[in-house]
Amino acid sequence: MIDKLKENWFVVLVAVLLFTACGYFVYDMNKDKLPGKKADGKDVVAELAGTNIFADDLYDDLYGAVDSESSLGTSMLYMYFERAVADEAVPMTSELKSQISAQVSGVRQNYQAYYGDQWETYLLQGLQASGYTSIDDLEAYFTHYLKLQTLKHENYDANLDSLFSKIHEEKKSRTVSHILVKMTDPDNPTEEEQKKMDDIDAALASGTDFAEVAKQYSDDSTASAGGALGYVDSDTSFVTAFKEAALSQEKGTVGDWVQTEYGRHKILVTETDKAALEADESIRESLYTAIDSYYPEMGAKIVWDKAQELNVTFSDPKIEEALKAYMNITE
């Protein structure tokens, strides 16, 4: 049957194969990536957060809890379904390969630096929480992740104007820069700290560009970038006093000094125009994050629509029902 399916230009097959009254699903493009092991004499089809998922349990979950959005079996089904669609929809390119390689290398280095001799143990735990079973699956993880992101972001780009409209209107979207004078006791600036603030005020009053003043005086890591913090809206995780000031200012204005636990800040709102924000490639990833947050079910809808475009087939209507319920698809 698999060979026959492969004669078509594309088929994603989600099948339930019965083995001594036990079942599990596969799709033909990714069948060799599914875990294959036994524990306590039973087939293990996946591992999630360190817990073995057995074929018979998965079968029971799929067929016994079709209407349950929290079904473990359905969540695993969606995980593989999502990966299958993204894998087929997004071609592997040299740029994508480079991104995957960079991510894998970066994660390995970070885990080794942070966890020392135990880095593999902690990395494996993280992979298992996403349904993978070994350290060697790290490349597969980033392949799936980056392909899925590409699929979603292509859709976001094509519909950016409509998707961003409500976010921009409701959440006061803007780009912001700042200058920080770091202080041990922000309530009581030292003479040196006060002089630095006075020098900053004098430089800005004289017409010196905000970015140049930030490069010269700011104690923040953003100084080299002219104090640029990038995209900010009402959901941004900033200290309350800072965020409130940033969201209250008009474009092009430099506000009064704002006190936070880090010291005193001068804030400049650099852009608020919707079209300008959409055109700014430097904040595009932040816009994607804002869209993800505002439309939490959109990612699943994009996967489902792409699956329909690619002519997904199901071996049993119960599986389709389970997926649609889990993904909140109401068509």
Automatic annotation (TrEMBL):
Residue span, PpiC domain: 171-271
Listed transmembrane segments: 9-27
Coiled coil: none
Top-level division of the source organism's lineage: Bacteria
Gene3D superfamilies: 3.10.50.40
GO molecular function: peptidyl-prolyl cis-trans isomerase activity
Presence of the UniProt keyword Nucleotide-binding in the record: no
Record's keyword terms, sorted: Isomerase, Membrane, Rotamase, Transmembrane, Transmembrane helix
SUPFAM superfamilies documented for this protein: FKBP-like (SSF54534)
InterPro entries per the UniProt record, alphabetical: PPIase_dom_sf, PPIase_PpiC, PPIase_PpiC_CS, PrsA_foldase
Protein name: Foldase protein PrsA
Organism: Dielma fastidiosa
